[in-house]
């Protein structure tokens, strides 16, 4: 049998993979320019090139590849759903089983990842301008991460799901450690590596148990088996005879994804890794990597294990409550801007998780409102968080410690940067005029209450009030003049302002027309 491949369906990740290969080739053959020394007394280091020479064009090549991939995503949205890597019905008992499916769910996640990637690439151009990081390797690894992040929401079997998730994770280790001779970056990379290896091992153990029971890796067939609609070789009595090992497998899979999204109790790595990595990598972890983790978690829970909702729904609810509470309480104690955003990101993961706790209860329809609310919150959160990280990177170029006190009077000294950061923080807090964050929380509240989890809505309400404290404190510093607090002279490149502008424009758009996001995500969830 020769399997037919729909190249239009796989065009977005294929374009990114080809661009990654092109970047690697150009990096090998373009003339290198030694980087300028940043430390006095050091000899000229020609071990890797500066981003100011001919290799500066690698950023533009990377950006062009992402935009072309985004164009294919838009074209797929206009032409309808597609699938490829399918098993013919004659070999699968009458059902068509596909490993790669392009539907509304896939397109929303892929589009969000690629738009976020544009902002991260613009931030990377600023980060690489100093010449302290090898340019070609950076963009190659970044593109590899994007290949996995775009492929993951389209994955419809456990094997492709795990491979795509690891393709998202593995390049980030090297990106984190790319800052040479930086002990904090090396420590962060080791922590991220250890955590990711442990989470992968736990998830693979759970996947192996589910496969051993159901005898299939396809999510649709898993759903039929665990809902009692189909027989499985590992179950002698159908759905009624499911052994406890199924529960163990479900718990292990959920735990593996909890590592990826930094959910409690697997959250301790987040702050150290975010602070040790460069700001663009921290932004990538907080948005793109997190989005990939949530895409995989939603697919496994709702598309494959909906019949086991009685097992995983209470676990997800408890984890969501603990995650938002621990994240907010730890964020209140931070003095570093990046660490505060790291713990804030953990808390936001709890808000995104909360609707999934009612995604398969009898009061809700599988894959409809609850999943759409999680996706809508994730899309809005991505815009708000990227804007905050872009401004933090701008300030980090002029300060050594990048603490909250360094932001005193920022809106008075640099109005554009200060007002942009203030708006993003207000959005994250869910306060006017940042209505995007407010509507995102309303979407989640509504689904939780309609799903019958009033206790979880109460926990979220309390945490929303807690989050107001540290967001308001940081915002107040932006407008508070302080004697003796000043930023070193610095003219940020246009790419920095473009990154800030794109993220801010998305946050403003979502504040003006939040229904666009809700309609898009609701349709994709039901489709």
TrEMBL record:
<feature type="transmembrane region" description="Helical">
    <location>
        <begin position="340"/>
        <end position="362"/>
    </location>
</feature>
<feature type="transmembrane region" description="Helical">
    <location>
        <begin position="190"/>
        <end position="219"/>
    </location>
</feature>
<feature type="transmembrane region" description="Helical">
    <location>
        <begin position="374"/>
        <end position="395"/>
    </location>
</feature>
<comment type="function">
    <text>NDH-1 shuttles electrons from NADH, via FMN and iron-sulfur (Fe-S) centers, to quinones in the respiratory chain. The immediate electron acceptor for the enzyme in this species is believed to be a menaquinone. Couples the redox reaction to proton translocation (for every two electrons transferred, four hydrogen ions are translocated across the cytoplasmic membrane), and thus conserves the redox energy in a proton gradient.</text>
</comment>
<feature type="transmembrane region" description="Helical">
    <location>
        <begin position="6"/>
        <end position="26"/>
    </location>
</feature>
<keyword id="KW-0472">Membrane</keyword>
<feature type="transmembrane region" description="Helical">
    <location>
        <begin position="494"/>
        <end position="513"/>
    </location>
</feature>
<keyword id="KW-0520">NAD</keyword>
<feature type="transmembrane region" description="Helical">
    <location>
        <begin position="99"/>
        <end position="123"/>
    </location>
</feature>
<feature type="transmembrane region" description="Helical">
    <location>
        <begin position="135"/>
        <end position="152"/>
    </location>
</feature>
<dbReference type="Pfam" id="PF00361">
    <property type="entry name" value="Proton_antipo_M"/>
</dbReference>
<comment type="similarity">
    <text>Belongs to the complex I subunit 2 family.</text>
</comment>
<feature type="domain" description="NADH:quinone oxidoreductase/Mrp antiporter transmembrane">
    <location>
        <begin position="155"/>
        <end position="466"/>
    </location>
</feature>
<keyword id="KW-1278">Translocase</keyword>
<keyword id="KW-0813">Transport</keyword>
<feature type="transmembrane region" description="Helical">
    <location>
        <begin position="58"/>
        <end position="79"/>
    </location>
</feature>
<dbReference type="InterPro" id="IPR010096">
    <property type="entry name" value="NADH-Q_OxRdtase_suN/2"/>
</dbReference>
<keyword id="KW-1003">Cell membrane</keyword>
<keyword id="KW-0812">Transmembrane</keyword>
<feature type="transmembrane region" description="Helical">
    <location>
        <begin position="239"/>
        <end position="259"/>
    </location>
</feature>
<comment type="subunit">
    <text>NDH-1 is composed of 14 different subunits. Subunits NuoA, H, J, K, L, M, N constitute the membrane sector of the complex.</text>
</comment>
<feature type="transmembrane region" description="Helical">
    <location>
        <begin position="311"/>
        <end position="331"/>
    </location>
</feature>
<feature type="transmembrane region" description="Helical">
    <location>
        <begin position="416"/>
        <end position="440"/>
    </location>
</feature>
<feature type="transmembrane region" description="Helical">
    <location>
        <begin position="279"/>
        <end position="305"/>
    </location>
</feature>
<keyword id="KW-1133">Transmembrane helix</keyword>
<protein>
    <recommendedName>
        <fullName>NADH-quinone oxidoreductase subunit N</fullName>
        <ecNumber>7.1.1.-</ecNumber>
    </recommendedName>
</protein>
<feature type="transmembrane region" description="Helical">
    <location>
        <begin position="452"/>
        <end position="473"/>
    </location>
</feature>
<dbReference type="InterPro" id="IPR001750">
    <property type="entry name" value="ND/Mrp_TM"/>
</dbReference>
<keyword id="KW-0874">Quinone</keyword>
<feature type="transmembrane region" description="Helical">
    <location>
        <begin position="158"/>
        <end position="178"/>
    </location>
</feature>
């Amino acid at each position: 049998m020769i399997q037919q491949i729909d190249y239009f369906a796989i065009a977005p990740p294929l374009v990114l993979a080809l661009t990654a290969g092109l970047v690697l080739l150009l990096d090998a053959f373009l003339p290198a320019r030694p980087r300028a020394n940043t430390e006095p007394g050091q000899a000229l280091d020609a071990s890797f090139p500066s981003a100011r020479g001919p290799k500066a064009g690698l950023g533009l090549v990377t950006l062009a590849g992402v935009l072309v991939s985004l164009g294919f995503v838009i074209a797929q949205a206009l032409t309808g759903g597609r699938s490829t890597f399918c098993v013919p019905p004659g070999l699968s008992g009458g059902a068509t089983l596909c490993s790669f499916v392009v539907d509304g769910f896939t397109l929303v996640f892929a589009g969000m990842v690629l738009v976020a990637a544009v902002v991260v690439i613009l931030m990377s151009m600023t980060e690489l301008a100093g010449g302290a990081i090898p340019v070609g390797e950076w963009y190659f690894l970044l593109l590899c991460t994007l290949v996995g992040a775009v492929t993951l929401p389209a994955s419809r079997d456990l094997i492709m799901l795990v491979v795509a998730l690891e393709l998202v994770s593995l390049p980030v280790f090297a990106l984190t450690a790319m800052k040479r001779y930086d002990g904090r970056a090396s420590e962060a990379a080791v922590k991220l590596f250890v955590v990711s290896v442990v989470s992968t091992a736990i998830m693979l153990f759970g996947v192996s148990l589910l496969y051993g029971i159901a005898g299939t890796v396809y999510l649709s067939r898993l759903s039929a088996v665990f809902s009692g609609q189909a027989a499985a070789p590992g179950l002698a009595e159908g759905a009624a005879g499911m052994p406890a090992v199924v529960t163990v497998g479900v718990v292990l899979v959920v735990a593996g994804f909890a590592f990826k999204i930094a959910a409690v109790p697997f959250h301790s790595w987040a702050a150290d890794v975010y602070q040790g990595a460069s700001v663009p990598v921290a932004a990538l972890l907080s948005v793109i990597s997190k989005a990939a983790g949530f895409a995989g978690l939603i697919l496994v829970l709702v598309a494959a294990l909906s019949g086991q909702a009685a097992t995983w729904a209470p676990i997800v609810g408890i984890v969501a409550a603990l995650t938002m509470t621990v994240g907010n309480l730890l964020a209140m104690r931070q003095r570093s801007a990046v660490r505060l955003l790291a713990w804030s990101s953990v808390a936001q993961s709890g808000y995104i998780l909360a609707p999934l706790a009612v995604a398969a209860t009898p009061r809700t329809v599988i894959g409809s409102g609850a999943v759409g609310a999680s996706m809508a919150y994730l899309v809005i959160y991505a815009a708000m968080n990227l804007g905050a990280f872009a401004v933090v990177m701008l300030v980090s170029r002029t300060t050594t410690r990048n603490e909250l006190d360094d932001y005193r009077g920022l809106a008075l000294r640099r109005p554009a940067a200060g007002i942009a950061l203030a708006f993003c923080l207000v959005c994250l807090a869910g306060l006017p005029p940042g209505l995007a964050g407010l509507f995102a929380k309303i979407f989640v509240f509504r689904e939780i209450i309609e799903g019958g989890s009033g206790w979880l809505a109460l926990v979220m309400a309390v945490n929303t009030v807690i989050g107001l404290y540290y967001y308001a404190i940081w915002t107040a510093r932006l407008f508070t003049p302080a004697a003796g607090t000043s930023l070193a002279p610095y003219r940020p490149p246009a790419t920095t302002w473009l990154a800030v502008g794109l993220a801010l424009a998305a946050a403003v758009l979502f504040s003006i027309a939040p229904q666009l996001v809700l309609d898009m995500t609701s349709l994709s969830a039901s489709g």
